[in-house]
Amino acid sequence: MTRFTKHSQTIILVIFALYALAPVYLVLLASMRSEADLFNGPLSLPWPINTSNYLRVWSDSGFSTFFWNSLKISVAVTVLVLLTAPLAGYAFAKMQFRGREALFALFLAGLVVPAPSVIVALYGNLQTLGLIDTHIGVILPQAALLMPFAVFMMRTVMQDVPDELIEAATMDGAGPLYGFLTVVVPLARPGLMSLTLIVFLFSWQEYLLPLVVLQTETLKTITVGAASLQGRYGVDYGGIAAAGLIAFAPLVVLFLTMQRSFVRGLSAGAVK
Amino acid sequence: MTARPAYLFLLPALFLYGAFVVLPILQVTAYSFFSWDNGIAQGFVGFANYARLGSDTVFWAALSHNAIWVVLTLAFPLMAGLLLAAILAERGPRTIQIMSAIYFLPRTIPLVVAGIIWGWIYNPLFGLLNYGLDMLGLGNLGGAWLAEESTALVSLNVVGAWTFFGFCVVIYLGAIQSIDPSLYEAAEVDGAPWWRKFRDITVPLLRNSTLFLGLYAAIEAMRFFDLVWVTTQGGPGYATEVLTTHVYKTFFLVGDFGYAAVLSVVLLVIVLSLSAIAFRLLRAK
Lengths: 272, 285
What we know:
The complex is a heterodimer of chains A (about 270) and B (about 280). By secondary structure, chain A is mainly alpha-helical. Chain A has two domains: about 1-50, no CATH class; about 65-230 and about 240-265, MetI-like (MetI-like fold), CATH 1.10.3720. Chain A contains 13 helices and no strands. Chain A has helices spanning about 5-30, 50-60, 65-95, 100-110, 115-130, 135-160, 165-170, 175-185, 190-205, 210-215, 220-230, 235-255, 260-265. A two-stranded antiparallel sheet of chain B has the order 1-2. Chain B is globular. Chain B has a domain at about 65-240: Orthogonal Bundle (MetI-like fold). The mean pLDDT of chain B is about 90. In chain B, about 45% of the residues are buried. At the A-B interface, helix 1, helix 3, helix 4, helix 5 and helix 6 of A face helix 1, helix 3, helix 4, helix 5 and helix 7 of B.
């Protein structure tokens, strides 16, 4: 490769790195800028570093509540999916039963179902069940909408568990659930880790369900809170920037510390 | 082995999925054949609700925006991902890891927050984009990006691309690393320049990944809602209306149950057909 080619390629790599990072960086700057500092232009380093935007958003605008609500819902959805999808994925991967293909096809179809396409009926159902304006009303449909992806991913993971080990466990007279918990789950740990991260990520990012289900201000999630903050204070860019950062900081930290698990999980289902 | 444990293993997942996804799909389909008044079904009307699609100009505008979104996604983030992956693949493992993490980072940001960040970058008065253009002496190119019908959809797609191109890089990188290196070595012996190797080896051998990402992008283009809702809510006018926002408005703002159900069914038929095509094409490989 000529040096010219190599250098121009490096420039392309850098330009796209700027495209990826610049918006995040600029938001970070804006979130630490005081109002007096605003007129030095958006690229100047904020000085003195100012945490009042964070404090204001966190306590006055209710972001501490939104944050805990999001955490509670995301953890609940993740636990619910972890308790159900691995069992189903294992059944599809390793067990023989009538209707296996049809049931798996039913799950596969759900991979692409968008929340807005079911909301017309789902909303009424949640009303009938008395789940409107409750966190359960967000948790259950959200876990259900993520189920096809989770089951599909778990089936792929479980297929890699060697049959001999499962047979050895059942030979010892262990019941299927005992064998699953003692033999399969430990072997599938990396896959389960990926599933946990992805489900938590998707759940934290969800917007439509909490938007329509939750009405009480103190029940709302961080995505809904951030979106409504944008409307409320049209020009409080420091506050909005701080709110945005609070809303995605946990995800970025999770991603950076567990990049491998993330990428493996998100590319599950992609063709080799 | 008897089948009973299998059904017990399946039951919890199936119950949740059945109750909160499959059942609502069946209900929405049924709703679309009834006339409604204040949320109460009045009577079976056959395909009468569907007949309204023809004259609903917003529906056709929305559908065309979804289609444009697919084309823009194929043209920009997908191609960028391919090029970046091909370049990155020849660098050291450390560079690959760091750069792909950087490219992938925006994907972890909720689309709502992405919309807020970019809404601010695009702001005509104090937005960073116009500010940057001013700095470069290109102030006359600045505009009200999301508030002009001519630029709103493309500007939003740049945000969508921002969250998507890193995913393409990661998928393509995985595939490139499984290409037989001797193919490149042979081309090098022949003195082929980089772009020829890219065109004649990398691109054709990554066809499956391109197919996967293309279909993935098409399905996502039909599904996306958050980004539009938090930035333009389909406006200005109907310039960024998509099927999901049209469903939302028809149901929650207009309260037109029957027609909202029709739009939902159309949306479902499109995404399910795309996914059926995807499975057929990808399995055939």
